[in-house]
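comment on this one:
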Amino acid sequence: MLERHIRQKVEQALGYQAAVALIGPRQIGKTTLALEIGEARGAIYLDLEDRSDREKLTEPKLYLEQFQDRLVILDEIHRVPELFQDLRGIIDQGRREGRRTGRFLILGSAAIDLLRQSGETLAGRIAYINMGPLDVLEIPDEAPALNALWVRGGYPDSYLAETDEHSYHLRKDFIRTYLERDVALFGPRLPAETLERLWTMLAHNQGGLLNASKLAGGLDVSAQTVNRYIDLLVDLLLIRRLPPLHGNVGKRLVKSPKVYVRDSGLVHALLGLANFDALAGHPIVGASWEGFVIENLLAAAPERTQASFYRTSAGAEIDLVLDLPQGQRWAIEIKRGLAPKTQKGFHHARDDIMPDRTLIVYSGNERYPKAEGIEVIGLRELASELAAEAI
């Protein structure tokens, strides 16, 4: 069993807030983690996708007042959005009676959906915690484990599968389930075939600039429709839009965001790449590594870190710019291979944005200076440094 480092954050939040919302994609391990936390607290667990559990909450106050001194875990709360109003009353009554913290652990699979439903109703009563896939700091510190995480992705069942083939079929099933059932729960009914084609096109263009018009032409829909579909995939925490860095540098900056399928294992499943050999010979290998590195670094970075990329029309470019809460700016170039080389555009970009640190993340583990003010570093070591910044 792998230890999820977000557990400590959830338990701390339950110690100071009445309700905690744990938000992340389906099958990411939210329920497993919640049950582990709840076991030590004698928690009550309700799966709101189960009709019998939903029926228990026909009269929420009447049912939940039986468990005033116990943690209540509410899984997939989007099934009963009207429950938020009742939770507010229960929490407020508990506060008046001295029960202020650790009342509810709420699990949700869509960021915007859950925020929209609870934002006003539970303002000041709820803490939000994002849970992502397994990351490089949660797996064994060895090359085979890192390769497996990259190829299979960070969804626990996929990463821990007995074989690459088993992992691949799990991811294909996950994609099919999302398209045929789950997407309809969170947005307007969308043609599953069209959304799958868009998702696959985004995987082929991993890390590319968003061009809604070009995507729309390939799907025979409008650019507005493409943007709406991408909005939904972003809300479901399946796609990341990485914004360009905006700054007064006197240069013509690229204005479109870069788009990534967030989990590398899903990228490979969408493209039919079942194992490392298939990935290593595919044109997507470099972009896949780039997206994998970005997700792992952002998982480790302190809260309120601003992430972007830098690119000018003249070709100056840096893959990832992190503006940390403490005021430092880190410029990060991502290279696959053991002998990373830099281009002119990288040095021009560095001169433009004047970062406090400049780092090149590569596939090896040795750390060494590349040039004055530029350091080559492995992914795990840089993720550890970012995690230390969060303490």
